[in-house]
Amino acid sequence: MNKNLGFRDFGVDVLVKLGGSLLADFDRARELGETLSRLAATHRVVVFPGGGPIDNYIEEVDRTLHFPPDIHHQLCARAQDQTG
């Protein structure tokens, strides 16, 4: 059976989402960075960031103001740009 049937192969071995909450603990973030660097020496790794405190604040404000879905998405994506 072809495990990639119906899926595009991007040539990635490991996909990691880093929670934006890592911003609060620099030592843990550095340790994780070192671990990912070692992993990347032998694997194809893609890392993408979470939004962290900025994203959490957007979620909190949205509960009151009820942003349109496209605006909400854009704000959260920009929060990820900041933490990335």
- Oligomeric state of the chains present here: single chain
Total of domains: 1
Cα gyration radius (Å): 17 Å
Extended strand count:
2
Instruction: Please count the helical segments.
Output: 3
Based on helices, strands and strand pairing, what is the structural class? Answer: mainly alpha
Order of helices and strands: EHEHH
What does the overall shape look like?
flat
Percentage beta strand: 5-15%
Order of the strands making up the biggest sheet: 1-2
Please, what is the average pLDDT? 85
Main pleated sheet: 2 strands, parallel
Q: pLDDT under 50 segments (min length 5)? A: none
Roughly how much helix do the residues carry, as a percent range? 40-55%
Q: Calculate the terminal CA-CA distance, rounded to whole Å.
A: 37 Å
InterPro entries: AceGlu_kinase-like_sf, Asp/Glu/Uridylate_kinase
Protein name: Aspartate kinase
Pfam families: AA_kinase (PF00696)
GO molecular function: kinase activity
What is this structure, in a nutshell?
With 84 residues, the protein is mainly alpha-helical. It contains three helices and two strands, in the order βαβαα. Helix 1 (26-40) links the parallel strand 1 and strand 2 (45-49).
Explain what this protein looks like in three dimensions.
- 52% of the residues lie in helices and 12% in strands.
- It starts with 13 loop residues before the first strand and ends with a helix.
- The protein is mainly alpha-helical.
- The protein has one domain (14-83).
- Helix 2 (52-65) packs antiparallel against helix 3 (69-83).
- It has a two-stranded parallel sheet.
- Residues 14-71 form the Aspartate/glutamate/uridylate kinase domain.
- This is Aspartate kinase.
- Keywords: Kinase, Transferase.
